[in-house]
Amino acid sequence: MLVDDEIDLLAPPIDPVSAPLSGIGEALRTVEPSAPSTLSEGWISEAEFSALIGVTSRRVRDLVRDGVLHKTTRNRRLGFLLPDEVQSYCKHLRERAVAQGQTDELKIERVRKERAAAEKIELQNAALRGELVSVAAVKQEWGGVVRDVRAGMLAVSARVGAVLPALTPHDISIIDREIHSALEGMADDK
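^ thats the sequence. predicted structure below, dont judge the formating
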C-alpha cells in the first residue's frame, strides 16, 4: 500500500509555466521536487516554509535560532506546523514594525537635539565675534539712556526760565507740567 508521500512522488510533475500559480501552491511549486509536500497535514519542510513566506532557507534557520520559529519532527524530517509558525512569524513582523516606529521617533528626537546643539554653538560663536549682546547688557544700556533723557527733559523748564527772563513763574510751571505730562504719557505707552 502506498502512503501519501509516495503517491505525491508518482504524480506527474507540474509545469510551472502552464499551471495556474497562486498562493501556497505557487510557493510549494518553487521547492525542489525531492521534497514531497505534507501541506494537507499542516506540516511543511524548511524549504517549503521559506518559499511560502518569501525568504531564504538561511533566514528561516536564523529565525529558528532566534526563537521566532520552532521546528517539529514528522516522519524523521524537520519542518514547521503551518498555522502556528505562520502566526509566530506574523507576530514577529508586527513587533518589528512597532519597534521600527519607536526607532523613528528616537531618530527624530536625536535630530532635534543635534539641531539645538548646533544652534547653541552658532550663538556662542556669534557672541564671541561680538555679533550678539546679552539682554541684560541691552537693558542696562537703554536704562541709562532713558534716565538721561528724563533728567534732561525735566531740566528744560528751569533752563528756559533762565534764558527767557520775561517768562513768569506761572509760565515756567505750565512748561514744567507739560513736560511731566509728556513723560508720563510715554511711560504709560510702554
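Confidence is low (pLDDT under 50) at residues 1-25, 27-36.
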